[in-house]
Amino acid sequence: MQEMNRELWKTLKKELPEKENLVLTGPRRVGKTTTVKWLFNQIESENKIIFDIENLKDRKIFEKTDYNDVINDLEAIGLNRNSKMYVVIDEAQFMPDIANVVKYLYDHYDIKFILTGSSSYYLKNHFSESLSGRKYIYELFPFSFNEYLELLGVKYKLKEMDIYNLTGKFNDFAYASLDNYYRDYLQFGGFPSVILKETKERKIQELNEIYSSYINIDAKSLADFKDLTNLRKIIQLLAVRIGNRLNINELSAVSGLSRQTVENYVEFLEKTYMIKTIPVESKSPDVQNRKLKKVYFIDNGIANINAQLSSGQIFENAVLVSLINFERLSYYEDKSCEIDFIVRTPFHQEAQNAVALEVKETPTNADLTALNKYAQKLGIANTCIIGSQKSAKFSEYVWGGELLPELPWQAC
Length: 412
Known about the structure:
Largest sheet: 5 strands, parallel
Radius of gyration: 22 Å
Distance between the termini: 33 Å
Helix content: 40-55%
Strand content: 15-25%
Strand order of the largest sheet: 2-3-4-1-5
Shape: globular
Order of helices and strands: HEHEHHEHEHEHHHHHHHEHEHHEEEHEE
Structural class: alpha/beta
């Protein structure tokens, strides 16, 4: 067993010398507190302090009516206002007014804030308005399969891949070495506390505890839902639809809830890191907004405790998790063809800056032929099949456990 080490940490460390504030958000229990404690130790200056806003004593410092009094309190507990100050605030979502405090102090003093919070529902939207030009936001998700292996101390280093130039070649050695680990990852997901549990029963127990915390803390504190039973119902209905188009009218009919209520639930679930939706491939934003999106879960383990999923759904969801940091991620579907995922670079439309990916449990040559044909219709030259099992007669595909793209950790 090794100490936790996240792929995002190197990027976050590079942000320390920058003037702008740093905001880290993501699902509950994903390792944000561990991350900011590590980041705090990387700050070379001694003029630094860390607060946990869940602690009422720490919270009181930032509840002053006059924000200049906050600086006085920080100075009283050891900071020097005459040199650069670093203030780390963990669980910032518990203080609705914290963005205004940070804005004022950032504008009037030489101070850099590093903040975490468990929900983009509050942090991303509210901070975008209040701290425009004063912050960078990063998202921390459940562990990738590579991080999973490192946490367990598995002596196998997966290589980063150029997602736009994937070489479709099945790696027998990687599959033989890691497939048992990958099966566990597919079933139980990437929350660190789940990974470290030694038995299936303990993993399921931990997943249920994480899920319960989401419902009873995030949902209760961040939304005004009268009946959380209905929220749970929608989550279960979404889980069985993983990899399928999200039809709000259908969900409304099945659940007995109004269309507007279902839309509100889905929006909340996406903004609080329960689900992820991806749009249809189109150059027109209007078309993307009008056509149905496909739905996935942020974590396989949470999805699996909410529904009996097929092995194909579980695998496709894991591939989505591997691609989740790409901003321009879509799917394509018409009457004659379907492409599971299309990844494009953020600022280019050219074919060489896009890749079409098809997910198959046991790929065949016919799958690759069809994918190339469909991608050609869209002008996309780069294609790759992502497979889960070893195919007896076909090897021109990437095993899902090896799908480790060089993630574009860009600030929002």
